Amino acid sequence: MYYIFFTGTAGSGKTSLVKEFQQYLLDQQLDTAIINLDPAVEKLPYTPDFDVRDYIDAYEVMQKFGLGPNSSLIVSIDLLMSKAVDIKNEISEIEANYVLVDTPGQVELFAYRDTGRILSSLIIGDNKAVNVFLLDSFLAKEARTYVSLLLLSSAIRFRMNLPQINVLSKIDLLNKKELEELNSWSNGEELIDSLGEIDDYSFDLINSLIESLDSPPVPVSSTTDEGLDELYAEIQKILAGGEDYL
Ligand code: GTP
Question: How far apart are the CA of 2 and the centre of ligand 1, in A?
């Protein structure tokens, strides 16, 4: 069993990609399951096989503790840890080749807090896993935002300690020129050129960021399904050493 986590900033397209990617795997007769880890989501476009909302209600937490939406989500996930045994038992009953894990938009859970990592380790157990990090290309088409999103991606890669694939989501929203420019930024020189004048600190930072990328971000769209073949190939490379897992 392989676990594929989908992380990214709020609204970057995680839930949509989980839905489309599940369909992509089903079309190849691969068994799939979905875990929803977002206690605050109201409506999902898929039917989860495990739903964290069965254990915790972020809205109730918000009312009970007088919290705002962001902090109630953080507290909800903390509270969830007290139900770790039940959660583990329910998840261990899932049978599938690939389990897709949809995560909350409050990405700080996975970038800056231990709960995200503890929760993901609990879910993964002894299985193999990969994290797909979504960079919203509509935001990332601005060079400085691209750099900030790569920094966030590195924070998550470091914190989760899983192999990670960066994805440029929503590429259908870009024109050809924007997409070409965005794709060229996996080359440090091109990226630095687009940033205009930068100081030495930024120059060194960007070069080491680009150097640390295992491979360039994969452009995908959940609206047109572009890039799903490439994403699947990257996932296979990491999880099954290029071999199909059936
Ligand atoms: P949170 O859970 O709130 O963080 O959001 P999310 O990351 O799960 O994003 P979601 O899939 O809910 O998508 C957010 C918005 O972007 C929705 O309006 C989607 O319809 C839209 N969207 C997602 N993927 C794509 C895409 O590939 N192309 C376009 N054009 N829109 C997309």
Answer: 24
Q: Is the pLDDT of residue 244 over 80?
A: no
Residue 142 pLDDT > 60: yes
**Is the per-residue pLDDT at 243 higher than 80?**
no
Both tokens of 67, joined, read 């919290």
Which domains are seen in the chain, by residue range? Answer: 2-135+162-172+216-240 (3.40.50.300)
Alpha helix positions (H), 1-103: 14-27, 58-65, 69-80, 84-92
Query: How confident is the model at residue 246, as a pLDDT?
Result: 42
- Closest-CA residue, ligand 1 atom 18, reads 11
**Position 237, amino acid:** K
pTM of the model: 0.94
9, 12, 16, 100: residue to mutate for ligand 1 pocket, most atoms within 8 A of CB = 16
Token pair 């507290």: residue? 75
Is there a contact between 115 and 78 (Cβ–Cβ < 8 Å)? Answer: yes
Residue whose CA is closest, atom 31 of ligand 1? Answer: 170
Q: Which residues pair with 57 in a beta bridge?
A: none
pLDDT at 81: 86
| Torsion, Cα of 106, 4, 114, 80 (10° steps) | 70
Ligand 1: distance of its center to the CA of 121 in Å? Answer: 26
Per-residue model confidence (pLDDT) at position 245: 44
- Output the pLDDT for position 78: 86
Task: Kindly report the protein residue whose alpha carbon is nearest to atom 16 of ligand 1.
Answer: 13
